[in-house]
Write a structure and sequence with these properties.
The chain folds into two domains: about 10-230 and about 430-475, 3-Layer(aba) Sandwich (Rossmann fold); about 255-430, Glycogen Phosphorylase B (Rossmann fold, 3-Layer(aba) Sandwich), CATH 3.40.50.2000. It is about 45% helix and about 15% strand. The chain has 19 helices and 13 strands. Strands 3-2-1-4-5-6-7 form a seven-stranded parallel β-sheet, sandwiched between helices. Helix 14 links the parallel strand 11 (about 345-350) and strand 12. Helix 11 (about 280-290) crosses helix 16 (about 395-410). Bound molecules: uridine-5'-diphosphate.
Length: about 475
């Protein structure tokens, strides 16, 4: 661990599992680099401070309730309005605290989706860098939203779904990060704000690595005048998994269950923390998995199946009849599961964390994206990195069985996919070694932040004048 640098970083995650995990991983990376960490979080989905005794935590009350996360669009829009004042009060107090006089605040790192933080940071003359927790390639697709609007892609007509969008090849209309909504203008408003305030920040940190996404990185670097720091995969910088930032308790018993299986024999199935499927899709998946005859470990999160509490839609005796070939848990220690030698394939919704975690372990994927950037990720997994297959048809048992059988084969297409997945895993390891791209990018980030200080005339550097931060960028 580097010596303490006498600087504090304020970190603000978006309060959703897939955003909290990478932000807290980033916090641990920066702590290891010698910085002190304060996490500013909401009352909703707040992390567990006791799991991070070396960080300080500040909670803001914002009045956006839990139920609203099921309507993601309105949840995000509301959060970006209701958090402004409590966030500003909180940061002002932190900047004026006695601790800040001893250990100045160097910078705010905000989730890019918390775009409201830019105006607050400007107002308080605090440098703001954003963390974008999704893929760089999907960000390039989001940037093209004026095109979606101009072509009227929301609501999406079935007849154009298969059309290629040549500006974003190899994406087709159905791979675009669109959502089903009756209010497309609200969606465009969200994207406009999120993209504008990312551009207004002093830099973007990515949980990705150069070798994986260099074309997208080059494209963005041309459009943005701010530096990009692809320092991922975050969790691989750390010695322990991200279980401490899990909002749901992870069922460790599945590791013992995996221990009883031979290498590459198990299909791991999980759709992350937000996606929901219908009861019919759930039952079809269950039969498809059972009929494939491969053992499976399935995360059925309460709330995954629309209209059901948990697994009551399963035919009675379903698991018992499989005689130990299937296990269902409510939430798993996913990083450990994917790193387990028994896991041979990951049936995933292609959330970015899941995709990257799978890439890091060389586990081939079966992609079943549900919404927004998951669809871009799925297309990249199957057609750019070619480390998985995408379920293109409806969720029906015959198709599920077919695709599992294809990917779990020891020869043919499956072997080629596995070989590519193992090569990508190696690249993910290399970028974190000394001199590797992500390690170098992390060092560049640290130097960049510390350079803000040298431009301030204030001895305690409590407030770093914005123009000095801007100068740091110009010199960069
Ligand atoms: N995860 C987990 N246990 C599970 C399923 C998921 O710990 O049973 C973690 C997973 O490792 C990942 C995060 O939850 O870090 C999900 O993020 P992702 O971006 O894949 O999907 P989202 O939940 O945002 O849709």
């Amino acid at each position: 661990m580097a010596g303490r640098k006498g600087r504090r970083w304020l970190l603000t995650p978006l309060p959703l599992q897939g955003h909290i995990n990478p932000m807290l991983e980033l916090a641990q990376i920066l702590y290891s680099e010698g910085f002190s960490i304060t996490i500013i979080h909401t009352t909703f989905n707040s992390p567990h401070p006791s799991n991070y005794p070396h960080f300080t935590f500040s909670c803001i009350q914002h009045g956006v309730s839990q139920t609203q996360s099921s309507d993601l669009l309105n949840f995000l829009l509301q959060l970006n309005v209701k958090c402004v004042e409590p966030f500003k009060d909180c940061v002002t107090k932190l900047l004026r605290s006695d601790e800040a006089a001893v250990e100045p605040v160097a910078c705010l790192i905000s989730d890019a989706m918390c775009y409201f933080t830019q105006a607050v940071a400007d107002n308080l003359h605090l440098p703001r860098i954003v963390l974008r927790t999704a893929a760089i390639s999907s960000y390039v697709a989001f940037l093209a939203y004026p095109l979606f609007r101009q072509r009227g892609y929301i609501p999406t007509q079935d007849c154009i779904l298969e059309e290629e969008v040549k500006e974003l090849a190899p994406l087709r209309v159905k791979d675009l990060p669109l959502i089903k909504t009756e209010e497309p203008e609200k969606y465009y408003e969200l994207l406009r704000n999120f993209l504008k305030e990312t551009k207004a920040s002093l830099g973007v940190i990515w949980n990705s690595f150069e070798g994986l996404e260099s074309p997208a990185l080059r494209k963005l670097s041309k459009e943005f005048s701010i530096p990009m720091f692809p320092i991922g995969p975050f969790h691989k910088h750390l010695s322990s998994s991200s279980s401490s930032s899990s909002l749901i308790s992870q069922d460790q018993s599945c590791i013992a269950w995996l221990d009883t299986h031979p290498p590459n024999s198990v299909v791991y199935v999980s759709f992350g923390s937000l996606a929901a499927i219908t009861e019919t899709e759930f039952v079809e998946l269950a039969w498809g998995l059972a009929n494939s005859r491969h053992p499976f470990l399935w995360v059925v999160r309460p709330g995954l199946i629309k209209g059901s509490e948990w697994v009551e839609a399963l035919p009675s005796g379903f698991l018992e009849n499989l005689e130990g070939r299937g296990a269902i848990v409510k939430w798993a220690p996913q990083q450990e599961v994917l790193a387990h030698s028994a896991v041979g394939a990951f049936w995933t919704h292609c959330g970015w964390n899941s995709t990257l975690e799978s890439i890091c372990e060389g586990v081939p994927m079966i992609c079943m994206p549900i919404f927004t950037d998951q669809k871009v990720n799925a297309r990249y997994v199957s057609h750019v990195w070619r480390v998985g297959l995408q379920l293109e048809k409806r969720v029906e048992r015959e198709e599920i069985q077919r695709i599992i059988t294809t990917l779990m084969d020891v020869n043919g297409e499956a072997k080629e996919i596995r070989d590519r997945a193992l090569k990508l895993k190696e690249e993910a390891e290399l970028c974190l070694r000394q001199g590797g791209s992500s390690r170098s990018s992390l060092q560049a980030l640290v130097t960049y932040i510390l350079s803000f200080d040298s431009f301030t005339s204030q001895p305690s550097s409590l407030y770093i004048p914005f123009r000095f931060a801007r100068k740091a960028i110009d010199d960069w």
